[in-house]
Amino acid sequence: MTALLRWHRTRRRTGDEGFTLIELLVVVVIIGVLIAIAVPLYNNYKKGAQNTAAQSDVRNGVTAVEAFYTANGNQYPASVTGALGKDLDLKLSGATGTATEKIAVSAGNQLVLKSTNTASGTTQPGYAICGWSSTGKNVYVYKSVTGKTTKYGPDKTTPNIAECKITDP
Hints:
Pfam families: N_methyl. By secondary structure, this protein is α+β, with helices and mostly antiparallel strands.
């Protein structure tokens, strides 16, 4: 036991006591540089994932509306309930209220479904679905008349989309 104590005393006298201040500062600087690189990359991945979720919500909406159309004798939904689809399911109802379909909306996303008959003045029956994420900044618009999805964005000056009556998501 006394030999162990002597060894510890001689070790303290020789200067083997730990890291120098310079070594610690170098480590802190290296960690800071790594964080400065990683945080913006993470934020970009997060925005991309939110935009992809909004795009997926639009595709799911198309599937639900078309299923509703088929189940209700070629009639598009007469009403949609769900506060613009923010963080909840949209419920589609027919004019007679016989059948309903649900559109699941991802957390943080919004979805709008409008009849193109009333929104754009066309006589061809159809609909438009707009979906966007609160932080992703892109708006995805599906028009049943053309069968295409269009991407608008990525900034807050999104063009006025008449089919969905959105000026600034």
